[in-house]
Amino acid sequence: MKRHFSSMIIASTVLVGSVSIPVTTNEVSAAAVQQKQIVLKEKTLVNGQEKMIEFIVLNKKKLYSATTLAHFFSAKATYDQKTKSYIFTKENGKQRISIILKADSNIAVTNNKKVTLSVPTKLVGKSVYVDPKPFIQALGGDLFIGKNLFISTNGLIKFETAKLNINGELSKVDKMKWNGKELYSVRDLAKAFSLSIKLDQNNQVILSKKNQNVTFKLDQNTIIKNGKSIKGNTLPINVNGTIYADLKDLVTAFDGDLLTLSSGIFVSTQGLLGGDTYNPQWINSSTLMVTNETETDSSTYLISTKAKNILKKLGIAEITVSPNGERAVFSDESGFVSLIDLSTYKVNVLNEEDDAAKFEFVWSPDGTKIFFIHGDKSDKISSINIHDGSISKVYQDSFAYKSDLRLSPDGKKLLYSVGKEGTTKYSDDKNTDVDGIDLTDTEAQLYVLPLEDSEIKPIQITNSKDNKVFPSFLKNGNIIFTSYDIEGNKLPILYQVDSKNQSTSLVSNKDIISSVVTAQGKIMILTAESNGMFMISEVDVASKKLIEIAQTKLVLTSFSVSNDGKSIAVTTPGENGEKIMVLSNGSFEPLTK
Question: Are both 179 and 232 inside the same structural domain?
Fold first, then answer.
């Protein structure tokens, strides 16, 4: 016959704050040894939550109430009068766990198998007390015995030293695996964030830094940040003086960012740059210059690709980096031209006399001259000498809105794109009522401007009705561009134009998103594949074959290659516009958010 049994009756008066609280038994007729046995009560942490549990001390060894332990695991406790056995059962999915104990015995039966206990059970009143470790592990949990019991009902408890990548540097951080989760040392993380930490008498952890103040209690998963409540993921705990907490809770509370990368966990204590971020330009193989726009600001930032932090914010919207990455040029709202030293960030005004609009700066290979499109109608191409700031006209004609300015690697030719303006049609003789605009033959064409000719005149190298984008020079002087069908019914085609203006198709069977000619003269393209993947490939001009560089499920919109050809940055849609990612160990890692 089986019957349910209960824990011992707890004394109605307890001492608040006591570590151990005496409990009376409910069996006045028990054996003498039982009558002398004192039942105590103490706090324990079960999955981070504070509970109370009864225990006895026998031969300097603590034995705990099996009934209460079973309750923590939602296990059922029954007593078999016939066999004098205490039976504990738990349903775990399709698995059924059973533990059978007898009083004053060191033999337990777990899932029909006999197990020898290191300490015999002890019956006090109607409750059986056991060594907690084998009992808890049989139920699928684990425990750690410190000043109190720390119980996990789901998996093992382990203490380890983890290596976290914090701002690009590997740091050792104490870690605790607990109830299927991982908690990290608050002390170690506070050090990484340069925070002060203290634990007050109310078990409240206080972290502070300048104007930031974060507090949380050990028995609550609510974080108070500067007076506002944030719900945490996991209860923090104190194990023998070391406080462990959820890593994401701590990083987020201090405006950092937590990334799970293929190489491991990355912690950015500064937090990634947010907003619409685009136009990545490599300063060197580990530093990117990007344009960033938010609702209130438009600026340029230098970002470390290793630490993923902002190295410098420049209060300028559009900047063009020199070939050696040492300087950059920009034009302000007044049209004046300035240089900025990228090591000292000192700004030097080159020309504050010419206030006409200036666009698309292109540096000469030796860095002594900068070409640009000049004028409000973008009808002129000019250059500026970086030594004296003098501006010289290179070429001008009646065609307005020139764009895509490029310079050949030898500095002897310019490439640009321009089209005829549409003709306005009027329905009356006085030309006051517009009937429409004739766009016949207004498609933009590519032109080459030989800079060393005695009379500089453009040479038209295309004459087709397609859209021509991403024009670039190759090292041998040939030109590539990507042709897009105006109607969008055909796949793009990557063309090469030789010195005789003969066009050759290099890639015609791919959905080309963008193309780049690297500093080494390699042609690289970004394509959207038919299987939903996005691929960056190198184009072998001789064989017209593609050499895969990287492939991803991410939607990529553009890419940029560093001057040494070893680093690649891409743009991809984010929550607030575009965001930047960099290729690392074969996968793309976020650099902004």
Answer: yes
125, 169: one domain: no
- From first to last of the 593 residues of the chain, give the pLDDT tens digit: 444 444 333 332 332 333 444 544 444 444 444 446 899 999 998 988 889 999 999 988 999 999 999 999 999 999 999 999 999 999 887 889 999 999 999 999 999 999 999 999 999 998 999 999 999 999 999 999 887 889 999 889 999 999 999 999 999 999 999 888 899 999 999 999 998 998 888 888 999 887 778 898 887 888 988 888 888 888 888 888 899 999 999 898 888 999 999 889 999 999 999 999 999 999 998 999 999 999 988 999 999 999 999 999 998 878 999 999 999 999 998 999 999 999 999 999 999 999 999 999 999 999 999 999 999 999 999 999 999 999 999 999 999 999 999 999 999 999 999 998 777 777 777 667 777 777 677 899 999 999 999 999 999 999 999 999 999 999 999 999 999 998 888 999 999 999 999 999 999 999 999 999 999 999 999 999 999 999 999 999 999 999 999 999 999 999 999 999 999 999 999 989 999 999 998 899 999 99
Tell me, yes or no, whether 168 lies in a domain: yes
How far is it, in rounded angstroms, from Cα 133 to Cα 113?
17
Last residue within a domain, chosen from 248, 268, 288: 268
To 5 degrees, how large is the angle CA 235–CA 241–CA 246?
A: 25
Cα R_g (the chain), whole angstroms: 37
| 3-state SS record for 401-437 | CCEEEEECCCCCEEEEEECCCCEEEECCCCCCCEEEE
Q: Are 220 and 229 in contact (CB under 8 A)?
A: no
Would you say 222 and 205 are in contact if contact means Cβ atoms under 8 Å apart?
Answer: no
**Stated length of the chain:** 593
Question: Domain range spanning residue 234?
Answer: 158-268
Domain CATH number, residue 129: 3.30.457.10
Q: Which residue has the tokens 């194990």?
A: 239
Same structural domain, 172 and 57: no
Q: Are residues 116 and 243 in the same domain?
A: no
Strand partners, 324: none
Measured at the CA of 16, the angle between CA 176 and CA 128, to 5 degrees, comes to: 70
Same domain, 133 and 188: no
Of 125, 152, 179, which residue constitutes the final position of a domain? 152
Distance (Å, whole) CA 76 – CA 82:
19
